[in-house]
Every structure is written in C-alpha cells, then in structure tokens.
Design a protein that fits this description.
By secondary structure, the chain is an alpha/beta fold. Helices cover 39% and strands 12% of the residues. The protein has a single domain (3-19, 42-359), classed as Glycosidases (TIM Barrel, Alpha-Beta Barrel).
C-alpha cells in the first residue's frame, strides 16, 4: 500500500482510538446464520510485496499463512517472486490494482479527469488528499485504457486473478470517523466532493434525460442522476469482468460495506457487478461502530448478492484493541455467512493463531 493511502487510513485510526466502543456481548448471543463449522472457510490478506524479501523467508511466511487457513493473497504490486512462492505454498495469487483513482494516468492525460460540481478537476485540485486523482468512468478512452491494462496484467501466467480497488467515484461523503479529521460536516452532499460533471457525463445525461446535471435544483436527490453514475461504474467493472473471464481468471473487488452505504457515499452499486467474489471493507472503526456491526454488514451484503458469489469480510486490524475483539469480529462475520476473512494490516503470528482458532 502506498504511503499516501496509509496516511489517509492512519488519520482514521487516531480518531477511532479516542471514540471507544461498548463492551462486546457474548459470542453465544450472535445471530445464527449458516453453521460456520460446516463451511470450508477461505481467508485472504491484502499485502504489498517487498521485493527485498528472500525466497527462504517467503516460503516460511506463506506456509504459516496456509497453515492458519489463508488461501489467497491480494498483491498490491507485481512481483513474480512473491506470486510464484505464494502459489507454491498452495495460495491463490491475485493482482490488487487501483482502478479509478489514478494520479499516474492523469499525469499523462489530465483531460480524463473527473470534474466536481464546483467545476474543479481532480488532476489539478484533488479532494481531501493530494493523491485523490480520479478518472471519469464515462470516457471511452478511460474504459479502453483500463481494459488494456487488465489484459496485460492477466496475460501473466503467475497471476491468478484481478482484484479491483478504488473502483468507484470519489467519496461524496466520508466515513463518519473522518469528518472531524477533515473538519467537514457532510450531512449534505457538498459540491467540491460531488463528481462527475465533466462534459462527457453531462452530455450523456442530457441525451438520456434532457437535463443538464448542473441545472438540477437538488442533484443529490435526483434519482436518475444517481443511477447514471452507478451505471457508469457498473459498466467499467462488467467490461473488466469480460477481460478476466476471457483469460479464464477470476475478478474481484474491494468495496465499501453494505450495498446501501456504498451507493450513498461513493456511488458504488457492487451487488450488480459480474464478479467472482467480493471483499467489503468492513472497517467498523471508520464508521464509529462496534464489533457486532461486522456481522450486520456481512448479513446485509450476502442478502443482496447474486447467488453463489462469495463475500469475504475485510477487517482492518488496527481497529481491534486486542485478540479477543479480533476473534469476536471473525466469528460475527463467519456466523453471518461470510465465505472467509480478508485482513488489512500487520498479520502477525498472533493474528494467524486467532484466525485459526476463531475459524475452527
């Protein structure tokens, strides 16, 4: 993970630590879903490969992951050494790739930028943090670029699949935990964080509805304008799914928790994506929720997913005060029919032991 993104997450950790959480109820009082003991849970880790790692160290690390129940790794960078050793250890190795938040692309093509309702380009005035530089999903040039990039990634025989991140619009509303950090009150949608009002999107919406979105009196309440943007991202994902399946490889995505929340705050309609699996980032501390909320978020996602699409509950390790809390979070997820857990953070031997115990 990049240092920029790590800092954005770090800001939320500081606020979460001050918020505190209520005492957890007993595990026995958890809602009863599918019997977790009868499931073959498959766990994952989001990981950034360090090219300085020695092969001997990777063999030991990946064996420990496998022994704890990890069955797949989502690598943020391409490293044939890491992918190969993961596969040798019996793990799936997928390429975790930023999709719509692409400052690297906007350096070459600033004209592909998303535009805010206040008229600012992400290429020159990124919202919130300096690396928030978003592409417009409606531009054919952007769509072609992303499909070609996916084709290049998936053509490598050591890569098992493509994992999409930042596959959405910019946060029109931040998770509650970040409002104080960025000194914002986002009970309404603010123009500086509301995207995309570029000419491509405006012309397409005019052609569809007869209205320019900039002329809408209440754009945040206009259902057709919301739907237009949901469908813009849906189209990108489903076109990338075609590319992945052409290579006979899997495609997945890191998404915001709970379908309604994802649609409302980042225009992300992930239950209508043609994915092979989905990874909601159920980072309870970001939303000032207790650990029990993990189970609620999993249950809501599973309820609305297409039949047979597994949901892996993304857990943010710094949100947990201790291993007892982490074990509770894992059990809440699995008892509400998560197909497994995906960790973000430092996966220590202690974390692996907790995962193994909580999954048994």
């Amino acid at each position: 993970m990049s240092n920029n993104r790590r800092q954005f997450l770090k800001n939320s950790i500081v606020t979460a630590a001050a918020a505190g959480f209520a005492t957890l109820p007993a595990i026995a009082n958890m809602p009863v879903g599918k019997d977790v003991k009868k499931q073959k849970n498959k766990h994952w880790i989001w990981i950034n490969p360090d090219k300085k790692d020695e092969v001997s160290a990777l063999k030991k690390r990946y064996k420990a992951y496998y022994d704890a129940g990890i069955r797949g790794l989502l690598f943020e960078a391409d490293s044939e050494k890491h992918f190969t050793e993961a596969k040798n250890a019996g793990l799936e190795a997928h390429r975790w790739n930023w999709t719509m938040n692409r400052g690297d692309v906007l350096k070459q093509h600033p004209e592909w930028s998303a535009i805010s309702r206040s008229g600012d380009s992400c290429a020159t005035k990124p919202p919130y943090v300096g690396y928030y530089k978003w592409l417009c999903p409606s531009k054919p040039e952007v769509q072609d670029f992303l499909k070609n990039e996916a084709d290049t990634i998936l053509s490598k025989n050591y890569i098992d699949g493509l994992h999409l991140d930042y596959i959405r619009f910019c946060d029109v509303i931040l998770p509650l935990n970040l409002w104080d950090t960025y000194k914002l009150d986002q009970r309404t949608e603010l123009p500086a964080y509301d995207f995309c009002y570029c000419k491509t999107c405006r012309d397409a919406y005019v052609a569809k509805t007869g209205n320019d979105p900039l002329s809408l009196r209440y754009p945040d309440a206009q259902v057709s304008w919301r739907l237009f943007r949901y469908q813009a991202i849906n189209n990108v994902v489903n076109e990338l799914a075609v590319v992945a399946h052409k290579h006979h490889k899997k495609i997945s995505a890191a998404v915001f928790p709970m379908p309604e929340l994802a649609r409302r705050i980042v225009r992300q309609d992930w239950t209508n994506w043609n994915l092979d699996m989905v990874f909601p980032m159920i980072y309870h501390g970001f939303y000032q929720e207790g650990v029990t909320w993990i189970g609620d978020a999993v249950a809501e996602g599973v309820r609305f997913l297409k039949d047979g699409v597994p949901l892996y509950a993304g857990l943010f390790l710094p949100d947990f005060n201790n291993q007892t809390e982490l074990a509770s979070g894992i059990k809440y997820a699995l008892q509400n029919q998560a197909a497994g857990i995906c960790f973000f953070g430092s996966v220590t031997d202690e974390v692996l032991a907790t995962l193994k115990q909580a999954s048994s």
